[in-house]
Amino acid sequence: MTSSRRSFLRLTGTAIAATQAPPIASSWAGVFEPSRIDRSNGPILLNSNENAYGPSARVAEAIQSACTVANRYPYVRYGSLIEQIASTHHITPENVLLGCGSTEILRVSACAFLGHGKRLIQASPTFGAMERYASATGAEVISVPLTRSFAHDLDGMLARVNDQTSLVYICNPNNPTASLTPRNDLEIFVKKLPASAFVIIDEAYHHYASASDMYASFIDRRLDDERVIVVRTFSKVYGMAGLRLGYAVSASGTVQRMGRFATEGSINAIVTQAASVALADKDGIDDFVQRNLNDRQEFFNQAMARALKPIDSHTNFVMMNTSHPADEIIEHFRKNNVSIGRKFPPMETYIRVSLGRPEEMLAFWRVWDSLPYAKTGMMH
Known about the structure:
With 380 residues, the chain is an alpha/beta fold. It is built from twelve helices and eleven strands.
């Protein structure tokens, strides 16, 4: 093993070489996200909660520049990126674990904390990757329906906790509902969990959720609890979904435990340089957040004009009740060259719409208005 590879293993929190990992690490074949491939002249993509505007000009320039080092292994850059992330959050590098997208963080969490005889507790519906990875370990998955206000039913989740519960998954703001679970409620929930249960707080959409009494990041306002794992991604506000970079923030011992299962060399040279620029590009982040605020408000304006009532959104997507089978709506949009989110049982009449550029949203509403049962009070 080269010194650069040893540096990677150290920086990602792993203390045990890949050849010493338990056999469970070989069980992940075939557990992947659905394809997100865009085709030339293909549909308008309002289906994957991507930043329709990103990356910023500064980040795009960094991506182009980084192509000149695509022939080199990126290990040497991992340390500086980890240090920059740590500095951004006022923590130490030992508290940071990199991943090939935040989904890799979820995968290594499943490897580290789940397995046969273990239990994962999550909401329903929520982001589906955690359930897939948990099931691949042989763990039991318990899904608890959201409340009527689309928050996590924390009391209901606590009622399903038993001695086998080793991991709880909280996506906040939640995907696909774009809704929040109050911060104070989450703190009380974490304190009531048994010492053996770790908690993932997935903050993929953190930047789109305004700080308030109801919402505060578990990185910005940390709990002194080594069981809490906060997950972030560069796929959303930073506009780099195609480059795949995410990270976890947790206690150093927890990071080391997870890092044993990290894929060696999964962070590519281009994204390491682009992410470094993105973290420092405050103007770019602020611009994307403001654009999203404007686009989200316009979506609600258009929806209300059509007597529609979307769920209050704290993300870059909106979920709304159509009062008709979601499959019919999704197929109607597909036939009109617009891709929207899949159906999310048990919310059989709801659709999830990622916010696109203004011209893309105009196309969305034109297609909506062509539905035979669409209600509209506007002229186009």
